[in-house]
């Protein structure tokens, strides 16, 4: 029983990381039909931003320094997202092949750039001591870092849902996911929302990178790219453009992966996720909470 | 005075050359019906005016060229668009559909909209996708009327609606368009002759008739040739 609780909380922590990476991908694809294969680079850049803050500001106590590191990771992700959309993607709307080539190239170049800068060896990040301690959850000794990742992911999910539900930008994004041409015909400049969504996706991925550095015990240049495969699976299972769908799918994928790895055989977890994807595609091709396109 | 001048408009959709040098003007104030058989390019004409399809030639409103202008800037010039098949945002509530249409800096005529379509007032929280076809059409028209747009482009507002709902929509349109300029695409000749003073008939991507609506409706041979209908 205690091991089941431990695996569940560990799986939920991983789900939090998947959600942070996948929610931006899902909104970007839903609104602009852009498959952003460079999204993993935002994740890794966020991780390095967090590592740099933790490494450089010795004078600040560890706890506030970590808050600062997460904020810096989100900021770096958001700025990168906005720059990539404004500077590059914007020129290629309507041309899917060129966009895919561009984002693949960006992703590869970013990994190489970070590798050249920080080397390919994982950078270990200073963490507050209590991250490594455990909390007793009805007999299971659960690492605090897993609970922290889960809490931050839930907080950002609620924040994102509130932004989409309550603000005019959120309204435009939800309408744009359904029918961007009609939004434009109402006199709204959808291109501004494109930049906002890219920045928002970058922010979430950047924060994910900072938490990923805690979860995976260090940050390396290709960390985001490795996780991107699972993030894409989460996006497709959840339904393109649906934030709640992405959250549900992230939990489903991460728990499946963790349970299979621990109860069946290590390494089978990733394969079981692909099987899960195939089943969803056969039974419900539009994804769990996705809308079939007109 | 004309509110909209289209000259030598050519539009392609993929490989198909749909409009071959369409030229006509829409007179200020009043309704101009854009008629013709299926597939002659009526919807394509409206899409080109809104900048949702590219073309060559000229589309002018108040002397300014619209061709090549971004769609959102065209709409902000005061053009309300009611698309074919309504295109309400089905996952958004009725209230959100209307709020999205609010143009910053313009007056938002909620009183007018709820006066014309009282059905919508009681359904503000309902997702637009769960409305009946007639209610969705009312919402699509309400979205265009919310801002005081001097020019309205309305594409087949009675398509697929029950006769009783058609009457309601036509009554509302007659009241709402009394002091605006309207370019109305319509398959139903009764609706067109009820609402429009002027008519433009398209045939194979060119203008086959431009003139009074009454003269067209009174000439069974003409109406039969281009519209394929008997006039009652």
Concise structural overview:
The complex is a heterodimer of chains A (294) and B (232). Chain A is an all-alpha fold and 294 residues long.
Description:
- The complex is a heterodimer of chains A (294) and B (232).
- In chain A, 52% of the residues are buried.
- Chain A has one domain (2-224).
- The model of chain A has no long low-confidence stretch (mean pLDDT 92).
- Chain A has 12 helices and 2 strands.
- Chain A has a two-stranded antiparallel ribbon.
- By secondary structure, chain A is mainly α.
- Chain A starts with a helix and ends in an 11-residue tail after the last helix.
- In chain A, strand 1 and strand 2 (140-143) form a beta hairpin.
- The radius of gyration of chain A is 19 Å and the shape is globular.
- Chain B has 232 residues and is α/β, with parallel strands linked by helices.
- Chain B has one domain (2-227): Rossmann fold, CATH 3.40.50.300.
- Chain B has helices at residues 42-49, 71-76, 94-101, 110-116, 118-121, 133-145, 163-176, 189-195, 213-217, 220-227, and strands spanning 2-13, 16-27, 30-35, 55-61, 64-65, 79-82, 151-155, 181-185, 198-203, 206-212.
- In chain B, the strands form 2 sheets. Chain B has a 6-stranded mixed sheet, sandwiched between helices. A 4-stranded antiparallel sheet of chain B has the order 2-1-4-5, with helices on one face.
- The longest helix of chain B has 14 residues, at 163-176.
- Chain B is globular, with a radius of gyration of 17 Å.
- Chain B starts with a strand and ends in a 5-residue tail after the last helix.
- In chain B, 45% of the residues are buried.
- The model of chain B has no long low-confidence stretch (mean pLDDT 92).
- The A-B interface holds A 168, 171-172, 174-175, 178-179, 181-190, 291 and B 50, 52, 70-72, 75-76, 81, 83, 87, 89-92, 96, 99-101, 103, 143, 147.
């Amino acid at each position: 029983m205690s091991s089941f609780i431990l695996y569940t909380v560990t799986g939920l922590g991983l789900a939090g990381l998947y959600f942070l990476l996948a929610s931006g991908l899902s909104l970007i694809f839903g609104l602009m039909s852009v498959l952003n294969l460079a999204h993993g680079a935002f994740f890794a850049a966020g991780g390095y931003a967090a590592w740099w803050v933790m490494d450089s500001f010795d004078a600040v106590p560890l706890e506030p320094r970590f808050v600062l590191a997460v904020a810096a990771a989100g900021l770096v992700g958001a700025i990168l997202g906005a720059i990539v959309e404004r500077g590059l993607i914007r020129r290629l709307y309507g041309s899917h092949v060129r966009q895919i080539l561009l984002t693949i190239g960006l992703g590869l170049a970013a990994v190489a750039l970070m590798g050249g800068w920080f080397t390919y060896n994982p950078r270990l990040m200073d963490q507050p001591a209590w991250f490594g301690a455990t909390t007793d959850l009805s007999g299971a000794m659960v690492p605090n870092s897993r609970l922290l990742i889960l809490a931050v992911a839930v907080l950002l999910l609620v924040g994102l849902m509130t932004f989409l539900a309550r603000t005019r930008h959120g309204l435009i994004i939800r309408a744009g996911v359904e029918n961007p041409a009609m939004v434009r015909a109402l006199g709204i400049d959808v291109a501004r929302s494109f930049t906002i969504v890219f920045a928002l996706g970058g922010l979430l991925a950047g924060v994910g990178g900072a938490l990923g550095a805690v979860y995976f015990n260090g940050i390396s240049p290709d960390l985001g790219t490795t996780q991107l495969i699972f993030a894409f699976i989460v996006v497709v299972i959840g339904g393109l453009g649906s934030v709640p769908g992405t959250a549900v799918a992230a939990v489903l994928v991460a728990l499946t992966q963790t349970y299979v790895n621990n109860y069946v055989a290590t390494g089978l977890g990733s394969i079981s996720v692909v099987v899960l994807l195939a089943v969803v595609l056969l039974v419900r091709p539009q994804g769990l909470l996705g809308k079939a396109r007109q | 005075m004309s509110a909209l001048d289209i000259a030598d408009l050519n539009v392609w959709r993929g490989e198909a050359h749909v409009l071959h040098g369409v030229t006509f003007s829409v007179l200020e104030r009043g309704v101009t019906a854009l008629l013709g058989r299926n597939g002659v390019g009526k919807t394509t004409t409206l899409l080109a005016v809104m900048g949702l399809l590219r073309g060559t030639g000229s589309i002018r409103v108040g002397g300014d060229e619209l061709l090549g202008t971004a769609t959102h800037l065209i709409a902000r010039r005061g053009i309300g668009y009611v698309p074919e098949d309504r295109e309400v945002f089905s996952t958004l509530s009725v209230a959100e559909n209307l709020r999205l249409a609010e143009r910053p800096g313009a007056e938002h005529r909620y009183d007018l909209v709820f006066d014309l379509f009282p059905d919508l007032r009681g359904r503000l929280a309902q997702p637009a996708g769960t409305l009946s076809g007639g209610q969705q059409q009312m919402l699509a028209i309400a979205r265009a009327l919310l801002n005081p747009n001097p020019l309205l482009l309305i594409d087949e507002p009675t398509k697929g609606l029950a006769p009783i709902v058609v009457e309601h929509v036509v009554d509302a349109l007659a009241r709402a368009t009394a002091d605006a300029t309207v370019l109305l695409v319509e398959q139903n000749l009764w609706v067109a002759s009820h609402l429009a003073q002027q008519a433009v008939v398209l045939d194979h991507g060119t203008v086959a008739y431009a003139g009074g609506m009454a003269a067209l409706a009174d000439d069974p041979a003409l109406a039969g040739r281009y519209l394929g209908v008997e006039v009652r």
